[in-house]
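G.,

No rush on this.
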Amino acid sequence: PAYLESVMDVLPTDGCACPFVLKGYDDTSRINGKMYRPGNDFHHTTYLGAVVQRELQGIHEHSYHQHIYPFQIVGGSLESEYFKHGDFHDTLLDVDGNQATGVTTWLVRYRTTDIAGKMMVHCHNTMHADQGMLAKEYVRDVNSGATCECGIFGPIIGPGVIDDVKKATIVGGPKEEERKEVEGNGALVNSYHSVLVRPCIAILAW
């Protein structure tokens, strides 16, 4: 499929190379220095047809995980038995490489081919994600005249926004009345943080 075509030798689209820094523990768990906020609050935006690069830091302590689009490891890293340049993954954790080589930034790329809307990224340790180490990107449903934006850390507007970015979107998962009941009991947790994954799974995006 198109989203698994190699981007090893393809430069990222102009403006589409953005950082993700995972740092902290407990109530200091942050991505790019920001704690997760629900609603219309996004770190970066892309659009359909872009080649996107993410520059990952802190993954010697936290596992980076993104939904919807698998990424390809393209550089900035020491290969291991499991993680090699050219590999596609959706989760990346470097336990030894950073300490052994001084490498601090891993470069990954992916194509936004056919699914637009919210996209969650987070530490794959659920405890860290629940404490705030998760973030949203948005893939705009446009492929002509669009641009990527890095470091928004706030609301988005404009062309290619295909859903209500202020509200949760349920695709499968708990029924609406069940979700409200959980909310009413004050027990709603951030574990319901997904948007859409291939091929399908119960998901929710705040």
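When you get to it, here's the other one too:
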Amino acid sequence: MKSDEASIQFITEKCQSSYRWLILLLGCLMMVGPYYCVDIAAALKSQIDDYFGNSNDYEVNFSLLYTLYAAPNVILPFFGGYAIDRFGVRMCLLLFISLIALGQTIFSFGISIKSWPVMFVGRLIFGLGGECFGVANSALLTDWFKGRELAFAFGINLSISKLGSVINNILSPALAQKFGIEFAVWFGTIFCGFSIACVLLTFPTDKAMDIKIARLADRVDNYYFLW
């Protein structure tokens, strides 16, 4: 009986699966896109000013880009956390990263047509998914890591995520200088597509483990019932 219990415990714990390192890698990489895009406007601030003709209201409009992102996130993470508990991590990860990608796409389109209102809408939509995506990402890691490994997973996740900001600060101005500001901003949208791919790649492993756990839980119940 003891050997059976040990085998069951090993299989039914996600934190005991070697696939947790794959989930950690994908969890880190999926955060690079949002971190790259959230400050893309800051990395290109002077270029955007020149692109719009150095208008007198530029500073106000530029500040509003960040206000529209930050203001909804005063309360949205609370509802995002509830949605994750209610509908599951996988669905919410895809929903939030889709909002981020959609927002970045609209923002990039606004740059292309030189429209502040369109850019504002894009940043607002980006904000609807931005911080909630971080909550969902943390929930995913919490599901796969326990005990002393959990803090390590969070630390490594944050470190790699910040690479997105570093890459943005270095790459975006260089791209704008060589290919133009439109290309530099749309390149951020490509990063969002990369993050969507990372989210989708977690689905097979995470879903398969959930199914295995559910099946083995039934076996455990039947085992103790019959025993």
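The chain is about 85% helix and 0% strand. Residues 181-226 form the longest helix (46 residues).

Enjoy the weekend,
O.
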